[in-house]
Amino acid sequence: MTAVAEANPTVARRKLAVYFRRLREQHGTSFDQLAAILEVDRSQASRLYTGARGFQVEDVLALCRWYGLDAAEQARLVALAEEARKRGWWQQYDLAPSLRTLIGMEQAAVSISEYAGSVIPGLLQTREYAEAAAAVAYGAIDVPPQRVADAVKVRMRRQQILARARPPELWVVIDEAVLARVGGGVAVMRNQLEHLHAKANTPGITVQVVGFDYGLYPGGFHSILLQMAEGLPDVIYNEALAEPDDTSDTAALRAARKRWDRLRALALSPRESAELILRHVDRLGS
Fold first, then answer.
1. Which residues constitute the domain of residue 22?
2. Which residues of the chain have pLDDT under 50?
3. What pLDDT, in 10s, does the model give residues 15-29?
């Protein structure tokens, strides 16, 4: 039996935004015209075309009439608008809006490139390590225990994308400090490093480490670059202090790709990285 695909309102909203933005540019439609067509103010019309605000079915029908789209195309777009109004599994939890966007885009990504300078990437964490990391992250701002438990639950469910028949390619670059810093106690960290080593030898997953021997380098904040399919622009997710954000700005994407290429080049090779991970496992003892 074929599995039914889960609704992805994040991607549906982005698809509509990209589609109608291209039509607007092709036809030279101004935001003032759009506001009049949709019977909203100019700022609301602008937010629709960035994906910051979702399209209502009525919005889609009005734009289909304005641009003279045929019945088949109208039906396809209305179906996207209806999907965009649903709730993805990740939207059932109390998460930052930018993290919800990240998770929604992860579900449809072709490849995920991630740099981590302080913690093992979430897609490669064990449950015990995730619990320790969440306790530290949320303990600093004194949130209810249930929210910490939900954060771990969400992190574990996110990892299911790697078990799909056609998972996204995952490439991570990790600072050696992440391997050296014991998270959750020696036993938890040893298990985490063994898990990371096993994942590093899994097809479709590449792990590189920037070793201490390299010295200073331009690492920066935890960041994720997602390559999207189906005509969607790629997405950058930056975890800067307490205000993570995502963007698909072209200039920002160019800078992110250049930075990512630099990180891959200065990191140890995947084979050398795997050997280094094992040395840290040995350091922790049995």
1. 9-86
2. 1-4, 241-244
3. 998 999 999 999 998
